What we know:
Blueprint: H1 5-9, H2 20-35, H3 40-49, H4 58-80, H5 91-97, H6 110-116, H7 133-144, H8 150-170, H9 183-203
Amino acid sequence: MPRTFWDSKNPYCRRSKLTKSAFERIAFFYCLEITAGWSRRACAEMLRVGPEGVKVSRQTISQYFDAIGAFLMEAMILPTDPRYEDVEALDELHALVHGKGRGTSRSFDIVPAFLRSVPLPVKFADLPVHRTLLFHLLERRAKATKGIPKAQFAMEFARAAFICACVEAKGMDMSRDANFFEYRTAKSIARLAWSVLLELLERHPLGRAP
Length: 210
């Protein structure tokens, strides 16, 4: 009986050439990038010199990141409100994150909900939205990339919303965490989200390798 290649080698993504451990490392960097600011170049280097010992280009890592983001969008965001299939539904939040807006409407369900959840220590007193983990993650990502393209924003939103959902489900009270902006806390959040992400992908593997 022929063996199923991707089942034994990589349970998270069908027909992937990556080993299980290499994919797990990429998934961890997917969470670290937005929480702790680790780069995709660093991910490629860690894969090369680490126990995996594989050469993966930055472009390939980006393709896996996009595939995970698309998965989270379909599995988490769209079931909450299918209107998010229209990427313009996030235009107001995109403008706000880039310092060009003053708020978001209540036309859609999930943006207002996540902008009220997971409060952080007061950073800006003028807008309550600035005191949430979702806004902080997206704003920092926008600064790191010198602007998130609108076409990419839905997947960045899905990633940040997923991180927030993991933190909220774990019951982490970020409003009392004076050290949130330190690397240690950011990495612990990434590790939490990473474990949940791997569990999800093991049950519902990506449809195909990028």
